[in-house]
Write a structure and sequence with these properties.
With 112 residues, the protein is mostly beta strands. It is built from no helices and 8 strands. Keywords: Lectin. This is Jacalin-type lectin domain-containing protein. Pfam families: Jacalin (PF01419).
Length: 112
C-alpha cells in the first residue's frame, strides 16, 4: 500500500480553507493515486482496514472509507488483522493523522 498524501477539507467548503498534506508513504507494492471528492452533504462515517507485521513493523495493508452515501476502497491488499473506526451517532470524521516511516504504521481519525 502506498499512500501519497492525505488531505482533508471541511464538508461543503471551498478554497477559503487550507488543506494539510503529508507523505509520500508506502512500500513497493504499487503506487495508486486516488482522489476522493465528497459531495456537499457527504460525510465519512467509518474507516476500516487491515494491518500486519512486516520485518518487525506493524503496517497498514488495506484501507476502506465508508461515507453516508458510498464506500471508497478497499485500497491495498486486505490481509492481516482487521481494524475499524466506527463514528458515534451525530459525529463525522473530520480529519486523519498517521505515523509512518517507509510505510504507514498507524492511522487515526479526528471526530467532529
Amino acid at each position: 500500500m502506498n499512500i501519497r498524501e492525505i488531505c482533508t477539507l471541511p464538508t461543503g467548503t471551498k478554497a477559503q480553507f487550507s488543506t494539510s498534506t503529508a507523505g509520500p508513504w508506502g512500500g513497493s507494492d504499487g503506487a495508486l493515486t486516488k482522489t476522493i471528492t465528497l459531495a456537499p452533504s457527504e460525510t465519512i462515517k467509518q474507516v476500516y482496514g487491515t494491518t500486519r507485521t512486516v520485518e518487525g513493523d506493524t503496517v497498514v495493508t488495506s484501507l476502506t472509507l465508508v461515507s453516508n452515501l458510498t464506500t471508497y476502497g478497499p485500497f491495498g491488499k486486505a490481509n492481516g488483522t482487521a481494524f475499524c473506526s466506527q463514528v458515534q451517532d451525530h459525529k463525522t470524521i473530520a480529519g486523519f493523522f498517521a505515523r509512518a516511516g517507509a510505510s504507514v504504521n498507524a492511522l487515526g481519525v479526528y471526530y467532529a
